[in-house]
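job 3f2a | input accepted
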Amino acid sequence: MKLRTKITPIAATLLMLSTSHSVFAEDDFKLSDKLSVTGFIDMSWTYADSDGSSSEQSAGVDQFEIDFLYDFDDKLTAQVDLEYQDNGTGEEVDIEQAFINYAVGDGFNLKAGRFLSYSGWETEEPTGLFQFSGTGYAKFFYGGYQQGISGNYSGDGFGVALSIVNSLGDLEGEARDSESPAIETMVAFMPTESITVKGFYSIDKLDGTDEDIELINIWASYGEGPLTLAVEYNTAENSAFLGSEADGYLVMGNYAFDSFGLTLRYHAYEVEDATGMTVEDMSGITISPSVTISDNLLMVFEYRMDTDDVSDIDSDFIAVEALVTF
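job 3f2a | predicted structure (326 res):
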């Protein structure tokens, strides 16, 4: 996640108290007429093998999240997301999001605080993914957890958004203060109930330079009955380091068979340095069946094959995930 804020004693107490409740159905669990709670527990077993030369496996709780949703009235709401995560370098307990939202009226909303960027087809949370793993290219093309203010307008078949934040953040939680604010813009079109197209342009200042980080993210989805299709294209300058240029895309499809589902995805991305030399060139194919065990438990299975054209190494990845929502 982005800029991390350590949990205060009060927030830690709320987290401890909230975990004493049983798992409920998908709807928010209401603590009162104004306060409700939702969240998830994400557990997995994974195995990775690189060209037969090395392999590793792991098992455990990847992430636990509890979200507090408060309705002050019909216009003002607030949300605080508390998260435990094992990010591969250690365990962390953090405030992931904390923001207020005010419905100005006529489809216009204002949001202020710490919140996740609107950009990107693949979500940051496992509850929004169609498979176990993300592509891995979000760090180059998506905005992260940001701190600032955002305005969003939704009309009949279209929407626009503008966020002014201290920085675009990143997917490791390191937002920062800057001499000039970062800006993220969005334009969305929904010509039918089945089709959505969104485009994002984001700009930020690269630390210690006069150069700008520029991100462009465009995705389109089609959802009708059990079928979901999506395509995404990304391009960026200076997002990896000074002088870098990056491009990436994905194509995916998901089909649901009653309680079963199947996702197929292909993605690729490339990063070049200032001289035009390719420093990263990755692609991957993902096959991911899933089965709904109950209203609160989803099992996800994944096989993924990645190809690194720079090092000429192929990797195989297998995962079994248990995702409990409440």
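job 3f2a | The two ends are 21 Å apart (CA to CA).
job 3f2a | closed
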